[in-house]
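Regression test case RT-17, inverse folding.

Input:
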């Protein structure tokens, strides 16, 4: 049976943010969990399907591979054509393991683990990932460049060096959560674990919190981040800048910055994969008599020879003058499409000569039009 689209499984759009994907998975995973639906094969299958979808869409590399190749990205038979499928390219993990990782479970019944307050509140937490939408020119995307981004994000507090406390401050166990960093809330037959509102998940309280960051250990500020835009990148591609996301809590590692590329349109060029398309106007005499014309290219000008009798929309291919493949698989071509211009204004001398030329025209001069009108006569007989 054909696999359903992972975005459809979670009920989100393809443009959904990481947070939207998390919320969608959380809501449906609880609904279809086996502990809540004993002996229900349909719910069990749905739970497994949700786990597979979330495993892929919650991982930036796997999601990128899925967006490009679909389910083939994780099919061992298609793996050769799905290069870059992300970590663990083939197969999936146990959906129950995914659920436990998502909700913080360890062993035994996942619902017991969810509500036991498990997890070490003193464990350093990784910072959140960030998204940045970057607009680049056509030339920058085609040839590659370096960019400096200005990103406002949470960074390690310089006053307390990320500890959240003033020098000499004392820490004590939070009285609300008894040091677990989480509290349990009853919602009918479901019990939910939530971050402790008193210590914000720290499990400890500080008698002298840092005034600069209010005890958070991190502060918001503008950061300058340099990234390299590889040649051949296109709209919809995204780059990962490791360690340039939000600062971690309690000295935890930084998250990553994901840069989504948007390429501005060009005045002359259009892109078709790695090929460039350029429409070049030529005069009627050039098309009729033949000529060598100069055409624009990405890095320099080039020229082509058009033969006598060249028709409008004729396309000429110049090898190796296109765009470098972003994955290093060669360079595309430049496709020059001829557009024959018709004069809009004629001086008296030009008009006389053109009328004289028109009188000399016969089937040998315009064989295509003569043949067309000869056939068209049959329509009215």
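Golden output:
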């Amino acid at each position: 049976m054909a696999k359903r689209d992972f975005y459809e499984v979670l009920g989100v759009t393809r443009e959904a943010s990481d947070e939207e994907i998390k919320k969608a998975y959380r809501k449906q995973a609880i609904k279809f969990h086996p502990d809540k639906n004993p002996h229900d094969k349909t719910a069990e299958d749905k739970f497994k399907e949700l786990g597979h979808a979330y495993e892929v869409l919650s991982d930036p590399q796997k999601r990128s591979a899925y967006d490009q190749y679909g389910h083939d990205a994780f099919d061992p038979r298609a793996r050769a054509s799905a290069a870059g499928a992300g970590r663990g390219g083939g197969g999936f993990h146990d959906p129950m393991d995914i659920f436990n990782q998502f909700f913080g479970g360890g062993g035994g019944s996942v619902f017991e683990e969810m509500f036991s307050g498990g997890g070490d509140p003193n464990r350093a937490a990784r910072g959140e990932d960030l998204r940045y939408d970057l607009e680049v020119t056509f030339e920058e995307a085609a040839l590659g460049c370096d960019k400096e981004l200005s990103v406002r994000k949470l960074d390690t507090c310089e006053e307390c060096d990320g500890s959240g406390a003033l020098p000499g401050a004392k820490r004590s166990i939070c009285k609300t959560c008894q040091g677990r960093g989480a509290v349990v809330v009853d919602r009918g037959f479901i019990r939910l674990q939530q971050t402790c509102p008193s210590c914000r998940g720290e499990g400890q309280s500080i008698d002298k919190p840092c005034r600069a960051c209010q005890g958070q250990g991190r502060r918001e500020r503008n950061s300058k981040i340099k990234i390299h835009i590889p040649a051949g990148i296109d709209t919809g591609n995204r780059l990962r800048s490791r360690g340039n996301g939000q600062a971690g809590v309690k000295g935890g590692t930084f998250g990553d910055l994901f840069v989504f590329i948007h390429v501005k349109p060009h005045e002359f060029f259009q892109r078709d994969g790695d090929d460039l398309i350029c429409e070049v106007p030529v005069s009627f005499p050039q098309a009729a008599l033949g000529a060598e014309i100069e055409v624009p290219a990405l890095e320099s000008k080039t020229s082509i020879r058009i033969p006598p009798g060249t028709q409008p929309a004729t396309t000429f291919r110049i090898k190796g003058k296109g765009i470098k493949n972003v994955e290093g698989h060669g360079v595309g071509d430049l496709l020059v499409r001829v557009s024959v211009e018709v004069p809009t204004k004629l001086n008296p001398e030009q008009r006389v000569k053109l009328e004289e030329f028109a009188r000399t025209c016969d089937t040998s001069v315009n064989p295509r039009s003569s043949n067309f009108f000869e056939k068209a006569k049959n329509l009215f007989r």
